[in-house]
Every structure is written in structure tokens, then in C-alpha cells.
Amino acid sequence: MPRFSGFLGVTIVVALASLLVAVLRHTVVWAEPVGSLTGMTICVDPGHPSETSAGCVGPSGYKEVTAVWEVGQKLKAFLQEADASVVLTKSQEDEHVTNRHRAEIANKAHADLMVRLHCDAGGSSGFAIYYPNRTGTRYGVTGPAQSVIKASRQAAEAFYRGMESKLQGILPGRGIHGDSATYVGSKQGALTGSIFSQVPVLCVEMVMLSNASDEKFIRSESGQKRMASALMAGIRALATSVSEEKPPAGSPAGNGNRVDKGSAHIAPTSSPTAASMPEVPTKPRSTPYDTKAPFSSALKHTRENMENPTQSIPHRESHTVTTLESAPVPWTLWLLLCVGVAGVGLSFWLFRCATR
Predict the structure, then answer these.
(1) Are 128 and 198 in contact (CB under 8 A)?
(2) Do 87 and 111 meet the contact criterion of CB atoms below 8 Å apart?
(3) Residue 295: what pLDDT?
(4) 226 or 123: whose pLDDT is higher?
(5) DSSP of 71-137
(6) Contact at 8 Å (CB) between 178 and 335?
(7) What is the pLDDT of residue 51?
């Protein structure tokens, strides 16, 4: 009888432990692994308010400007933990900064990548990435340079794969698109932040804020941490892909012939300098920016190892469209729950029978 009771006790403990693991697997956002990104400078640009708009608003009133600011702060913390240099384009949530000035901040910091955080509005769900696929013109300036277009394209591919690996089964991916597919980009060729950018730049539409499920996801603390973790995965994927393409020592590219950061600029005839650009009203900045952050030597090589940016980029969309906070409980979890409860009940019944 003691052996049987012990066996029942072990069975109950195993059943409850299995159930706990299953629940945690579907509800807990695991911490972002810390791995060094030393030498990388990332410009995090929480979108809005700008000369374009104050951003969109979700069905329950949650604002895009709040979502991108809160995710941006979490991404900044993750990046700092990984020893990356981080530059923000604004010092507080409601600070008005023009899109041109946002790009200039990234340029001044010699960022390896500018990540522009936004939320979309429309009838679908999920995240998408936009990159400058051609030049555009704004305020009499034409840009970005072809080196920036190529670097941004490769960054978009790696970044999307990284984000998808973290969000698959939680938030669907809507693919990679050129700036020219956006409303503003279709009119001026590229987004304003891309036109003035001298560094690789991506615009990440994190969610479809007009979708109630997406809004609930990005409004929650766990959803914001998950999104920041996905953005980190995108940055890590980019760093890895660039590292793998680094030319061997002794090769022409390895002997100092790589494209330097300063060469990824807008053509001199339209260079956005203080002397040549028309003034666009902008709120004075309240905090200085670090302009001495090191430039990743690996990312210098990306400028000459890109494919034709005019080609369309195939992408694989996630088939599950549920979100972390608002998703119905997966059927596998319900099954495990039922099995666990049944196992506990059966064990208790057998124990009662054995002790009679």
C-alpha cells in the first residue's frame, strides 16, 4: 500500500508539473538573451508626432505614439544590455520631431541601422517592414544614395527573418515592402526619413493598430516585451548575416576597399547640408546625442554585397493570426489541461479505492 501511494503521489506531481510547463510555454515572455553587440550603433526612432501626423489610434483609444515610445524604451534597454550604442530620436513621448531631423540624428551618430517604429492602420493584422527601394525627392533633396538602398534591402531581409522567428504563432508577418508602396512613398518616391538617410534604414510597422486584437497585444506589457524581443532578434539576425559575409583577409574587400560609412551619402548635388536645405520648422532638441559611437566594421562590407534592390522580395507569412494576450487558448493546451485534470482525478479515485 505505501508503494502504491508513493506511485500515485509521483503521478500527480508529474501531471501537475507537465500542466504548469504547458501553461508557461504559452503565456510567459522569456527574457531576451544577452549577447554582445559591441561596436554596433542603433538609432531607435519612435515615430510621431511629426510634420506628417500625430499617429493613428486603436479602437479602444490606445495611441500609436504611446505604443512606439513604450516599445522603443524596451528595445533601448535590450540593446544596452547587449553592449550596443543606442541613439533615440526624441527624449519624450510627445516631442515633435520632423522626419528629416530624425534621419539627421541617425546620420550624425553614424548609426549602423536606423529602426523606425510605427503602427499601421487597415483591415488586416500583423507586422511588416518597409525599406527605401528607390530614390525620392522632398524639399528639393533627392535621396537616399544607392548604397543606402542596397544596405537597407539586405537589412530588411535579415531583420524580417529575425522578427518572424520570435512572433510566429503570435502575430502574422505581412512581408517586406518598398517605401514606394506606402501612401507618402508613392507620391515622393520614398519616405521622408529614407530620403534624408545616409545610413541603412527600416520602417517597422509593428502591428495593425486598427485591429482590436493587435491593439490589445501591443498595449499589454507582455506584448510590448515580445515585440521588443522580436526587434532585437531582427538586429541580431542582421549582425549575423553581415558577419557571415565578411570577406577573408587578403581579399580586395578585406584590404580597405570596403565602402566606408561616409560614402553612403546622398549625391553632392543634393546633399542635405545645413547650407543647401530649406528650413523646416522643428522643435528645438533638449538633449545632445552621442556622435562618437564606433562603427561596426562588419557592416561596412554590407554596402557592396547586395542584390538588385528593384526585385521583389518573397516572404513567408505566418498562418496563425492569434496574438499573445487576446488569443484563444490553443487546442493543445486544452488537451493537456484535460489530460492533467483527468490524471489527477483518476489517481485520487484509485487512491481512495485502495485505502478502503
Answers:
(1) no
(2) yes
(3) 34
(4) 226
(5) HHHHHHHHHHHTT-EEEES-SSTT----HHHHHHHHHHTT-SEEEEEEEE-SSS-SEEEEE--S-EE
(6) no
(7) 85
Element (H, E) at 301: none
Residue of 246, 147, 141 whose CA lies nearest to 196: 141
Q: Are 172 and 125 in contact (CB under 8 A)?
A: yes
Question: What single DSSP character describes residue 285?
Answer: P
Angle at 306 between CA 35 and CA 136, to 5 degrees: 105
The Cβ of residue 120 has, within 10 Å, a number of other Cβ atoms equal to: 24
Strand-pair partners of 178: 131
Write the CB contacts of 198 (distance below 8 Å, at least 6 apart in sequence). Answer: 103, 106, 107, 143, 144, 145, 148, 264, 265, 266
Q: Which of 262, 237, 257 is nearest to 301 (CA)?
A: 257
Residue 98 above 60 pLDDT?
yes
**Distance from C-alpha of 28 to C-alpha of 178, rounded to nearest angstrom:** 34
Q: Where are the alpha helices (DSSP H) in 209-288?
A: 212-219, 221-244
Higher pLDDT, 86 or 241: 86
Question: Is pLDDT above 60 for 90?
Answer: yes
Structural contact between residues 105 and 50, judged by C-beta atoms closer than 8 angstroms: no
Note the pTM of the prediction, 2 decimals: 0.65
Q: Does residue 9 carry a pLDDT above 90?
A: no
Contacts of 346 (CB under 8 A, 6+ apart): none
